[in-house]
Amino acid sequence: MSTSSSWQKLVTVLADDGQIAPEWVPVFEELPRTGFLPDLIWKHNVATKTVEAADRARDPKEWLTAAESGAPLVTQWDDGKHQGTGRGQVASSSASAPSVVASMLRDLDVRPGQRVLEIGTGTGWNAGLLARRLGVDRVTTIEVDKALAEAARAALSRHGLEAAVVCGDGFLGHPPGAPYDRIIATCGISTAFPDAWLGQCRRGGVIVLPWGTPFTHTEATVALTVAQDGRSASGHFTKIVQFMSLRAQRREHPAYEDYVTAESRENADKSITALTLEETLGGEWDINRFALGLLVPDSTVIFDKPKDGRHPVWLCGLTDRSWACVLFREDGQHAAVFQYGDRRLWDEVAIAHEEWVRRDRPGLGRLGLTIHADGDGPSVWSDSPDNAFRLHAPV
Fold first, then answer.
1. CB under 8 Å to 288, separation ≥6 — which residues?
2. Active site residue 96
3. What gap in Å lies between CA 240 and CA 164, rounded to an integer?
4. For residues 134 and 138, what is the distance between their CA atoms, to the nearest angstrom?
5. Chain-wide mean pLDDT for the chain?
6. Contacts of 322 by beta carbon, 8 Å cutoff, 6+ apart
7. Among residues 271, 265, 256, which one has the least CA distance to residue 341?
8. Is the model's pLDDT at 357 over the cut of 70?
9. Dihedral of CA 82/95/364/330: which sign?
10. Among the options 92, 94, 96, 103, which is catalytic?
11. How far is CA 280 from CA 141, 271, 300, in A?
12. What pTM does this model have?
């Protein structure tokens, strides 16, 4: 398949920046994502914070520009129920930014002869890249959505890359093909690591996935190496990302009225904090927001609209009805804090922030994750697995 100069230029830029590993450059050059995208896609307008449709039938030039760009693209809304070119309710499938695809494949560190399981086929492009590099008999990809699986299978076939496309729940992996040398997930994991993945990966194998928490949508990719006893896997975080969640782990924002009742408003504790929004919860691509999510479990953050010089930020417990509201001030003065319930959620955030600062604000390359078998929760560490975070209990 011939490739355009625009795509070749993008690949060259990503390769020069070190985002595409040298061994992957010819594969990306030969297999552009345009051959795997549907005729209707949606691109994000960063300036207006909206999404705009690109319809191949209506405007093929606009569609091609979007397809060959370095941006992520929405390819399905509302599990396929959405119709038309407008925005749906929930984006349910996408084509990741080529830079993210490249960095995750770099982290996967595949070698000739190895076998790979991909969780979340989507358009099929990632599976196609793997099949082109390793061979079609070395790649199995699993997709929960039947329509997406069929479309990906057809796209792979058009390119002569008939990798095994399985329609099923990726949370369970694919036992018939196990063990795999590598597992890669192209959907976000947040509430629990699938035990099946650890059990289906060889000792010394690598599992690459976007790991996040219910705290915010800010995630990071992580490359986990399976221990020789097969009972754990550890690795460093590598890149801040945002992925659509594994469908089994989707979540909705808590309802305001379920938390903030007249009684809880009246009995909420009031205090002040000198911490600012920027240094604690920052922007959605900031490492501090991701780090705090790792350290404050079973909670989520809701950012309210700024009003009258204040920016309200809510924290909600996910295992009870504890809540906190911090009224950050645009003038930089101390913010009012209201907390209610068995947990003092803002206190937990402040303690986690203090510990993160005490460790010299570890970021990607220093922050790491260990996954344990037999139901033990994940552990977060800095620099090495034996340097786990230990937060003292909030007062």
1. 279, 280, 281, 282, 353, 356, 361
2. yes
3. 30
4. 6
5. 94
6. 316, 339, 340, 341, 342, 343, 344, 345
7. 265
8. yes
9. negative
10. 96
11. 38, 17, 14
12. 0.94
- The C-alpha atoms of residue 37 and residue 198 are separated, in whole angstroms, by 31
3-state secondary structure of 2: coil
d(CA 274, CA 262): 27
Starting at the earlier edge strand, list the strands of the sheet with 40-45. 50-55, 40-45, 73-77, 91-95
pLDDT at position 395 over 50:
no
Q: Average of pLDDT values for 32-54?
A: 89
How far apart are alpha carbons 95 and 139 in whole angstroms? Answer: 19
249 or 290: which leads in pLDDT: 290
Sheet holding 299-303, edge to edge: 269-273, 335-340, 323-329, 310-317, 299-303
CB hemisphere CA count around 12 (13 angstroms) = 7
Answer for the pair 53, 40: CB distance below 8 angstroms, yes or no. Answer: yes
- Quick check: 198 and 233 in contact, CB under 8 A? yes
Is the per-residue pLDDT at 1 higher than 60?
A: no
Q: DSSP letter for 212, please.
A: -
Whether residue 315 is predicted with pLDDT greater than 70 in this model: the reply is: yes
Q: Residue 127 to residues 53, 156, 239, 243, 302: CA-CA distances in angstroms? A: 25, 8, 21, 17, 35
Tell me the average pLDDT across 309-318: 96
Is the distance from CB of 146 to CB of 166 less than 8 angstroms? no
CA-based R_g, the chain, Å: 22
Terminal-residue alpha carbon distance, the chain: 63
Strands (DSSP E) found in the chain: 40-45, 50-55, 73-77, 91-95, 116-119, 139-143, 164-167, 180-185, 201-211, 219-226, 232-241, 269-273, 299-303, 310-317, 323-329, 335-340, 367-372, 379-382
Express as a percent the part of the chain with pLDDT over 90. Answer: 87
Distance CA 112, CA 246 (A): 29
Q: Residue 99 corresponds to which tokens in the numbers above?
A: 């830079």
In tens, the pLDDT along 279-297 reads 999 888 899 999 999 999 9
Cα–chain-centroid distance for residue 19? 18
Of 204-218, 240-254, 310-324, give the lowest mean pLDDT range.
240-254
